[in-house]
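Re: [help] complex structure
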Amino acid sequence: MKENIQRVLISEAQIQEKVKQFAKELSEEYAGKDPIFVGVLKGVVMFFGDVVKQITIPCQIDFMWISSYKGTESSHMEVKRDVSVDIKDRHVVILEDIFDTGNSLEFTYKHLMEKQPASLKICTLLDKPERRNPAVTVKADYVGFTVPDEFVVGYGLDFNEYYRNLPFVGVLKPEAYQ
Ligand code: IMP
Ligand code: MG
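Output below.
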């Protein structure tokens, strides 16, 4: 596992510091608003658990699982698992692992907006702006770290479903792709 990592981009300590900061900001902004935090599976699982554990106000959690057909546009995405809580007139925050092309966040955002929440914001741990699809209009309200245009793994992010359990975010060695 770790021997396949070329370098650590964001350490466990840096991630946990950011998680603490997000949880504080979200707890302040959503005080008295009874928010729902929606995680987009599976990549967000570590970030989601760490953030919500440190939220100090009443809140609910829910999950979505969407899937895309590789190399295609957001119109070819589908909802595999929808939120189960009624979010109409509720304050909703989408938590994501990475804002890459933005196709999945755009799709998720529009999908949830159709349910008429009172508000809808996006909190992403990582942002890879160089890869953004120019057609994507959605913006992230909270961004943890901006990363270069490299494939990253760890802390929920995978390569072929592996490396999600690493506690940091790193770049794979080229030979690990073969
Ligand atoms: P999108 O390109 O912004 O729609 O991102 C789609 C999904 O691809 C993300 O939610 C991640 O699960 C995955 N992804 C994007 N970039 C990376 C990466 O560098 N490493 C691992 N997964 C990634
Ligand atoms: Mg994801």
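Residues 12-68+76-151 form a domain with the Rossmann fold fold (CATH 3.40.50.2020).
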